[in-house]
Amino acid sequence: SVPSTTPSISLEDAISTAESQLSGKFNEHPATLKFVAKKDGSLALTHVVQIQNDETGAWFEAFVDAHSGELVQLTDFVAEASYLVLPITKETPTEGFEVLTNPQNIAASPAGWHSDGTTTTTVTAGNNVITFKGAQTNTTTESSPVLNFIYRQDPTQDPIVPVNVDAARTNAFYIVNTVHDISYIYGFTEAGFNFQNNNFGKGGAGNDRVTVSVQDAAGINNADFATPPDGQSGRMRMFLWDFTNPRRDGALENDIVVHENTHGITNRLTGGGTGRCLQTTEAGGMGEGWSDANAEWTEHKNATIVDFVLGQYVINDPAGIRSHPYSTDPTVNPLRYSSLQTLSEVHDIGEVWANLLHNVYAALVGVHGFSDTAHTDPTTTGGNTVFLHLFLDALPLQPCNPTFLTARDAWIQADANRFGGANFCTLWTAFASRGLGVNAANHQDDSTVPASCT
Prior knowledge:
This protein is α+β, with helices and mostly antiparallel strands. It contains eight helices and 14 strands. It folds into three domains: 11-76, Nuclear Transport Factor 2, Chain: A (Roll), CATH 3.10.450; 82-269, Elastase, domain 1, CATH 3.10.170; 281-453, Neutral Protease, domain 2 (Orthogonal Bundle).
């Protein structure tokens, strides 16, 4: 028989029952009434409510019988997930793949990486990103239940063989989700115009997870990221590289994936989610620089400041794809603010900004040390943690189409806002060391720092 469509048990009582039995709290997601089949085959009218426990990470969808009050069905949104990937702290496949289990941060991805809170998948698709080849239906499916994605890249074969395609889609899925989770806890949230299908009622426009096309046929020896306004998906395209035989896959070089992903962050946070405020040559160049700097940030493992080279795997050259390593040593990297006088291509301009930020990072770590848990805990006090706070905080403070000067000033202001100006002289000294001092203007160097810093 079909039970009455008018509940005998109130929603409030159903929530209380679910909270008690599941040791969590109702998360305010709109409750619904649904008929479900019970184990004995009979129908039940149920209150459907979501219950979360922020301490344990548990998140359930509870079906409470609207007549008896019995908990008749349960959906567990949190699943164990394992991925054979290149950890984000590693740059190239030669450093070694590892199996990572449950790498998601529930503070940033409360439904995990394979659910949007309503729909759960067993493929490389979830609330934050979908990775595919060709068509969005061509994702990678779990290699075994539940949510195991164990595909071992074979570097002796071309990237297009099936196992290598799966390895690429899995790695890109892991990296883009990890960048989402790191940037989220540092402020790139729903209200900050981030990329998610479901924003869980926390502001911003949803339905805009990142789409990642691996081995995209539209290009070679490159990658790109398109950032439309909040509410439209960011589009990443990863291409193959043909400097070697077999060819190499940009989706397996983490610094390239993070670089592209960071374009989405900087284009959304600058200009209030419009995606239209890094359009001038100088601003676009800084966009490239921020992307290199964030890729470098993810790969630091300790307080030792080493020169950073980007793109060395895809071209099989330890010198990488930039003109110089990023370095605190001016004999290794001589780029300065005045270098902009002769540079007109955005990646070349970006190298100047990225090297400035490399020096800012080194200065902050020199003062504050290094936090081993900065990827998952933004409350730590290491210089790497301070750096990423300022990196993200400065973006919405700067004007549309910033210059090196206005971007520098945004960093100074971000420090005043968050840290009470504690790093004022550290920042000015680092910027001035590469020509971006107090009196710098019109691409003319100046090494002056504020009088209070002398």
